[in-house]
Amino acid sequence: MKIYTKSGDEGDTHLIGKKVKKSNERVEAYGTVDELNSLIGVTLTSIPDGCEDMKEDLQKIQHELFDLGADLANVTTRENYYIQNEFTIYLENRIDYYWEEAPPLEQFILPGGHTAAAYLHQCRTVARRAERRIVDISEEVQTPAEAIVYMNRLSDYFFAAARAVNVRTDLEDIPYRSNRK
């Protein structure tokens, strides 16, 4: 079987249950989720020793994002989605765990520190974009309500994990300094 089908050469693609233009908002939403999944794969290559728990989390999240992408690509009427509230609850527990490792925040911080922390901050921003895309389509098409909640928590997870990586690697968060006089 060849990887190329030529079926998308006219700018169309197939959702589950419908053929649409590749510029369709639903395609943009699940495409952004897919982009985030790929970025997590890159991030995993930089996770330092001492963060094996984070590696497990990130691989779990990759599977959940694949499920979410399937939910977003399905235009048929559904009651049961792959994305579940238990995924969000797991993220909340992990956020609390990582948040306890880092010192209290007293000001804004810049993305950076350890390479893995910088990638996790980038994951956070792509997760926020994916969340915005899901909100956009949820106003007009059936989407899982949990998708928005999950993506919101996921961006918080990445922030907390980035700070934990910096703590575990003895690097400090980079404080934001205003240029305003």
TrEMBL record:
Q: Does the keyword Nucleotide-binding apply?
A: yes
Give the record's family classification.
Belongs to the Cob(I)alamin adenosyltransferase family.
Report if keyword DNA-binding is assigned. no
Q: Which organism is it from?
A: Salisediminibacterium beveridgei
- Enumerate the NCBIfam families for this protein: PduO_Nterm (TIGR00636)
Q: Which UniProt keywords apply?
A: ATP-binding, Cobalamin biosynthesis, Nucleotide-binding, Transferase
What is this enzyme's EC?
A: 2.5.1.17
| Residue ranges constituting the Cobalamin adenosyltransferase-like domain according to the UniProt record | 3-164
Q: How does it assemble?
A: Homotrimer.
For this chain, one GO molecular function annotation is:
corrinoid adenosyltransferase activity
Q: What chemistry does it catalyse, as a reaction equation?
A: 2 cob(II)alamin + reduced [electron-transfer flavoprotein] + 2 ATP = 2 adenosylcob(III)alamin + 2 triphosphate + oxidized [electron-transfer flavoprotein] + 3 H(+); 2 cob(II)yrinate a,c diamide + reduced [electron-transfer flavoprotein] + 2 ATP = 2 adenosylcob(III)yrinate a,c-diamide + 2 triphosphate + oxidized [electron-transfer flavoprotein] + 3 H(+)
Gene that this polypeptide is encoded by: btuR
Pfam families per the record?
Answer: Cob_adeno_trans (PF01923)
Q: What is this protein called?
A: Corrinoid adenosyltransferase
Against SUPFAM superfamilies, the record matches this protein to:
Cobalamin adenosyltransferase-like
Q: Name one GO biological process term.
A: cobalamin biosynthetic process
Task: Tell me the route in metabolism or biology where this protein functions.
Answer: Cofactor biosynthesis; adenosylcobalamin biosynthesis; adenosylcobalamin from cob(II)yrinate a,c-diamide: step 2/7
